[in-house]
């Protein structure tokens, strides 16, 4: 679910909520995707979930990355009709 990061809508700066297994902006009425990047090489990280805690792994650096160091970016999910 949500991490201890400010989950802010990239479009309107409102706080995001957690709905239907994803982030959602109640103000914009849109789903929002969370992307996490390596602080060292800027490659997108893989999320590892185990025993109730989340970690991040960088395939480029081939090492675990601390959740407190990762770069988080939110992006409006493209509408599919």
UniProtKB/TrEMBL annotation:
Source organism of this protein record: Photobacterium angustum
Domain of life: Bacteria
Coiled coil: none
Classification via Pfam families: Zn_ribbon_6 (PF07191)
InterPro entries to which the protein is assigned, alphabetical: DUF1407/YfgJ-like_sf, YfgJ-like
Signal peptide (UniProt feature, chain positions): none
GO MF annotation: an example: ligase activity
Record keyword Ligase present: yes
Name of this protein: DNA ligase
Key words of the record: Ligase
């Amino acid at each position: 679910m949500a991490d201890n990061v400010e989950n802010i809508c990239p479009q309107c700066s409102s706080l995001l909520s957690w709905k239907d297994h994803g982030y959602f902006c109640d103000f914009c009425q849109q789903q929002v995707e969370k992307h996490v990047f390596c602080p060292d090489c800027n490659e997108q990280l893989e999320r590892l979930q185990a025993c109730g805690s989340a970690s991040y792994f960088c395939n480029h650096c081939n090492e675990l990355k601390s959740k407190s160091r990762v770069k988080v970016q939110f992006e409006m999910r493209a509408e599919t009709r």
